[in-house]
Amino acid sequence: MKRVRFIERDYLFNKIKKKSAFLTEQMINEVLNEQKNLEDVTFELHENNTGFSTKIYCNNREEHIKLDDLGKFSYEFYLNLVKDLSVDQAKEREYIEMIKHILSKNNKATYA
């Protein structure tokens, strides 16, 4: 199981700071402080045979929510998270198959 927290305010702060050379941290904070519904969610991903199952917990409302309830930035974060984990999962499976193949060759060579 993998648990990852996404805090939209932090995400937006970093995104704005990176893309804007003329805004100060104070200016960015003032803009973000005006926003009322910034998300704070925790993704809990459980690996299974076909990929992942996901539980999403809204830390603001203290309840589980559906994928459809996510805002744009949280959803984008989720997609990137699943993509990265899927690539890692595929690489892991590929390595396991490669090791099995090498071991099977070594076993055949030993007994030949």
SSE layout and pairing:
Elements: E1 2-7, H1 8-19, H2 25-33, E2 40-48, E3 51-58, E4 63-65, H3 72-111
Antiparallel strand pairs: 1-2, 2-3, 3-4
Helix pairs in contact: 1-2
Q: Would you kindly provide a written description of the structure presented here, covering whatever features stand out?
A:
This protein has a four-stranded antiparallel β-sheet with strand order 1-2-3-4. The chain has 112 residues and is an alpha+beta fold. It is 54% helix and 23% strand. It contains three helices and four strands; from the N terminus they run βααβββα.
Topology pattern, helix = H, strand = E: EHHEEEH
Helix/strand-derived category reads: alpha+beta
Q: Largest beta sheet, briefly?
A: 4 strands, antiparallel
Proportion in β-strands:
15-25%
* Strands, count: 4
Low-confidence spans? none
Q: Roughly what percent helix?
A: 40-55%
Q: N-to-C terminal Cα separation, in Å? A: 43 Å
Radius of gyration: 21 Å
Globally, the shape reads: elongated
Would you tell me the overall average pLDDT?
88
Count of DSSP helices? Answer: 3
